[in-house]
Design a protein that fits this description.
single chain; about 325 residues; alpha/beta; Rossmann fold; seven-stranded parallel beta sheet; 13 helices; about 40% helix
Length: about 325
């Protein structure tokens, strides 16, 4: 088996800060988004809740892209619970049930050591298999804020992306400033202490991805946007060579002018791949709005597309399959 797709699920209390995440119809529903995303990859709809995760405006989860690529290319998927409120109702590997804390009040991840240890153990076991490449995606509402906090603590002048066209940068910066004040640090102060940056400001997904990447010594594709840049920066600060790593995202993240994806990737020294999906001609407004800056990435959409393209499918075929899946969802919703 050449490639294995891992979907790491994580929650952070930061997602419930009003206005900071649109990875769910309400701040409270963001707690259920990771398990619903994972369940949808294997079923017609999630099992934990009877709705597809959507933004407050009704745009569908990027899991629909990952599901489309999976159904086309038939690559294997392993779900990993990095730290969530609930366990998904599908087979999965349990790393932790620890949820990231509100880092304005206390350190975000006191359990980071146990999470890294368990995830590294899983990575080491996978390293003994015939798998040559791990493609690691994530579903972590609020994760772009924890990512920006970690990147800033490590000294990167980075702005992370958002699932909204109106990136709440000022709110993110306000929340991070409060957290830095609580921890008594300045930007860049933890560049030589990445584990403290993770403990103070990270999330369980980030810790899981770091552990997996430390344990698995072959090729690692970090399938995500600016959140995976934070994971890359942590690995680099821990002394890891990024020569075997790549960050795979979508064109919507790369084209996001409110973020600094390419600049930050260059600063970290990690190569990138951008999936050239296009929904501009879609019959569905929920998908056309991806071209207007909604959603952008998540659930490993860019990395899943990378696997589909490697298997011989074009980005256009992936987009077409997304259209087909969305049509089915709309039909289920209306009962037609």
């Amino acid at each position: 088996m050449e490639s294995l797709f891992l979907l790491v699920l994580g929650n952070t209390e930061i997602s419930t800060v009003p206005g900071i995440s649109v990875a769910g119809a309400t701040p409270e529903l963001t707690k259920l988004t990771p398990v619903a995303d994972a369940e949808y990859l294997f079923h017609e709809k999630p099992l934990t809740i009877d709705v597809i995760p959507v933004t407050p405006e009704g745009h569908p989860t990027p899991a629909i892209i990952t599901k489309a690529a999976k159904e086309l290319a038939n690559f294997p998927v392993l779900v990993v619970r990095g730290g969530t409120y609930l366990a998904p109702l599908i087979p999965h590997v349990h790393i932790s049930s620890a949820v990231g804390r509100d880092f304005r009040r206390e350190p975000a991840l006191p359990e980071f050591g146990e999470i890294i240890k368990n995830a590294k153990l899983l990575g080491e076991e996978l390293n003994k298999s015939s798998v040559k490449e791990l493609v690691i995606g994530e579903s972590t509402p609020g994760g772009t804020t924890t990512a920006q906090a970690v990147l800033w603590a490590l000294g990167y002048e980075s702005r992370t992306s958002s699932a909204s066209p109106d990136n709440p940068q000022s709110l993110k910066e306000e929340v991070i400033a409060e957290a830095f004040g609580r921890a008594g640090i300045e930007r860049g102060q933890l560049k030589d202490n990445p584990l403290e940056a993770l403990r103070q400001f990270g999330d369980p997904m980030m810790a899981t991805v770091v552990g997996l990447s430390l344990g698995f010594r072959k090729s690692v594709v970090l399938a995500g946007g600016t959140q995976m840049l934070a994971a890359s920066a942590l690995l680099k600060a821990l002394g890891e060579s990024l020569d075997r790593c790549m960050v795979a995202t979508t064109k919507w993240v790369v084209n996001d002018r409110s973020a600094t994806f390419l600049k930050t990737a260059k600063g970290i020294g990690v190569i990138t791949y951008s999936a050239d999906l296009d929904f501009s001609e879609s019959e569905f407004k929920g998908l056309r709005d991806y071209e207007r800056g909604y959603v952008k990435e998540g659930v490993g959409a860019g990395g899943a597309t990378w696997l589909a393209v490697k298997a011989g499918f074009s980005p256009e075929e992936v987009s077409g399959k997304v259209e087909e899946l969305y049509r089915k969802l709309i039909g289920m919703k209306t009962g037609s």
